[in-house]
Amino acid sequence: MSTPEQEIEYRQHRFSPPPGATEIFLVRHGESAPAKASTPFDMVDGQADPDLAPEGREHAERVGGRLADERISALYVTTLRRTSQTAAPLAAKLGLKPELEADLREIHLGDWEGGLFRRYTHEGHPIVEKLWREQRWDVIPGAEPMEDFSGRIKAAIGRLAAANPDRRIAVFTHGGVIGEVFAQASAAKNRFAFLGADNGSISHLVVSGDEWMVRRFNDTSHLQSPFG
């Protein structure tokens, strides 16, 4: 007597990166020191370079704990010290020396560098309203042109992906950069749709050739759990 053939089952697809793809964890640096008129920020190449605040150092420790088991092969930081300070706990856990990727530094805010952007945002400066209405950083006097900013971010992500096929990397960078990366990845009509990643947050991008795939944005679960 013949037995019925076992019916084939088709399970739901589970995502896996395409061959040769690069997984990039984009980490926004921990909270930086507050801006004070009495103590201007140090500057690096015309950009504000504040130290991490105590809260930011805790963010860094939590990020290190969260990503320590994620099979990360390389770490990248920018020219601004708050990124290298945030990367330090993870670098120590993994025994990796962070590499520099200068083109993932924050948007240059021109005449509003040195802490003035925070002050004018708090005070409700009329240009801030124009910035959000037009979705352009370069409404700020002397700020980096949007096309230049967009181009350097796209080139830097492509360069890191090309250098790290079939690997996972962590990039410690800035809120404006993360916002631009995910606006490009999603072809967002609203250029600031992803602006506002929290300090110490983790966002996840998969890059396969010219295709950028959004996997996760602004994950802060590690910042909310008990710390010990």
From TrEMBL:
Entry keyword Transferase: yes
Ranges of compositional bias, category Basic and acidic residues: 54-63
Region (Disordered): 1-21, 36-63
GO cellular component: a single term: cytoplasm
SMART domains in alphabetical order: PGAM
Xref: Gene3D superfamilies: Phosphoglycerate mutase-like (3.40.50.1240)
Superkingdom per UniProt: Bacteria
Single GO molecular function: kinase activity
Keyword terms of this UniProt record: Kinase, Transferase
PANTHER family: BROAD-SPECIFICITY PHOSPHATASE YOR283W-RELATED, HISTIDINE PHOSPHATASE FAMILY PROTEIN-RELATED
Protein name: Phosphoglycerate kinase
Organism: Amycolatopsis orientalis
